[in-house]
Amino acid sequence: MDWHTLSVERRGPLALVSLNRPEKLNAVNFQMFQELDKLIKQLGRDSSLRAVVLKGAGGSFSSGLDVKSVMASPWQAVRLLFKGLPGNANLAQRVSLGWQRLPVPVIAVLEGRCYGAGMQIALGADFRLAAPDAELSIMEAKWGLVPDMAGLVALRQILPKDKAMELTMTAECLPAAKAAELGLVTRVEAEPLAAALALAERLCERSPDALAAIKLSTNRSWSAGLRSLLSRESRYQIRLLLGANAKIAAKRQLKDADAPYRPRQRFW
């Protein structure tokens, strides 16, 4: 597929995805929402995919929503927010939540500005590696709005409630070091892209089924009740034990460190 607001490069089992509107500091317009949604669905169907690295082109992750572009057409705003049922994810929410739902690790590389809609997209990633000069802000309150792109799904897992409310209410702009101190980013790296690629390489050494099960179990169990958590752990473990990749993982530990894994099970 030809992408107009994204750049997608496949490096073996890794997909390197760039928000690609550098002249606009990768501000998210309606077309980028659509393309991200399509790409996430496409990646989810690829059982050979093992990891995703998500970054912004030109030195900034994203300056946020391209307000002028999106608001130029009321119909675009309607299409962003429309949902068939209140509990379903709309287009604006899917570009954040979709990364959490992918059955592979997603690593966001945060450089320069990571504001508003860009921050919500980054919160959908499993790991966030930030450059020392990166700036992060949940900025919607400056526009008199509430964050509405499902970023709270991740935010409630990584920050205490009072800290999350403080950041969303004040729209404070955080330097990378403070964001790391709060837990908003995984860590600060002098070369975050190189660090992300190295982490992706390490993750690709593990069974794709195990990684998918760990991600799915963690996301579903983080706020779940004890009985639900215990049930899910047992069900996923049995499915892993019955699959070929668990046997291959054991073989890699005991006999052949380079034994290739099979594609991820469709279950995940």
Please, could you describe this protein's structure?
This protein has 268 residues and is an alpha/beta fold. Helix content is 47%, strand content 14%. Strands 1-2-3-4-6-9 form a 6-stranded mixed sheet, with helices on both faces. Strands 5-7-8 form a 3-stranded mixed sheet. It is globular, with a radius of gyration of 19 Å. The two termini are 25 Å apart. The mean pLDDT is 94.
Q: Which class of secondary structure composition applies to the elements?
A: alpha/beta
Q: What is the chain-wise order of helices and strands?
A: EEHEHHHEEHEEHHEHEHHHH
Summed over residues and divided by their number, the pLDDT gives a mean of 94
Main sheet: strands, sense, barrel: 6 strands, mixed
Summed up, the helix count is 12
Low-pLDDT ranges: none
Shape category: globular
Order of neighbouring strands in the sheet with most strands: 1-2-3-4-6-9
Q: End-to-end distance, in Å?
A: 25 Å
Kindly provide the radius of gyration, computed on alpha-carbon positions and rounded to a whole number of angstroms. 19 Å
Total DSSP E strands: 9
- Proportion of beta-strand residues: 5-15%
What share of residues is helical?
A: 40-55%
Seen as an oligomer or otherwise, the chain set is: single chain
